[in-house]
Specification:
157 residues, alpha/beta, 2,3-Dihydroxybiphenyl 1,2-Dioxygenase, domain 1, 4-stranded mixed beta sheet, 5 helices, globular
């Protein structure tokens, strides 16, 4: 095997003209393991207003919950270990799942989550504002908006 197998020079990786062998349309879904599938489905529907889809095809699991074309697939965690040996071996982790919203909906979401007594962390990312919170299993969720009021967009001045 050549020494540089699978590696490219930095200038090749950074070249915007370099094309992948395939393309994506969009991210379809993220899969999460949850302790209580029914409780989590209810939470994602009630708190985030996600729509349950494909239940007539897949049954109870996975539970596909969507907002537009962004979906979460919820799987019941196995009590005897990780859902996938591949994930455990690779040391995979989940950082957070982000939903994009308009500025008005962002403010409404922050208010609604706080009214539910949920702990919400605000962060100003310069070009976007985000709030972070957790689902019943402790998965970190984010609602972000790039739709900031003009006075909060100094980078456009």
């Amino acid at each position: 095997m050549p020494e540089n197998f699978g590696l490219m020079k930095m200038d090749e990786r950074m070249n915007p003209m370099r094309r992948a062998a395939f393309t994506f349309q969009q991210i379809d879904h993220i899969a999460l393991s949850v302790a209580d599938l029914k409780k989590s489905v209810a939470w994602y529907q009630d708190v985030l207003g996600l729509e349950r889809r494909y239940e007539e095809v897949w049954g109870e699991c996975p539970a596909m919950l969507c907002a537009g074309s962004t979906c979460i697939a919820l799987f019941a965690a196995k009590p005897d270990g990780p859902v996938s040996n591949v994930s455990a071996e690779a040391g995979a982790s989940f950082r957070h799942l982000a939903f994009r919203a308009t500025y008005a909906d962002f403010l409404e979401a922050e208010r609604a989550l706080q009214q539910r007594g949920m702990q919400v962390e605000f962060q100003d990312h310069g070009i976007a504002h985000s709030i972070y919170f957790a689902d019943p299993d402790g998965h970190r969720l984010e609602i972000t908006t790039y739709d900031l009021p003009t006075e909060q967009k100094p980078f456009l001045a």
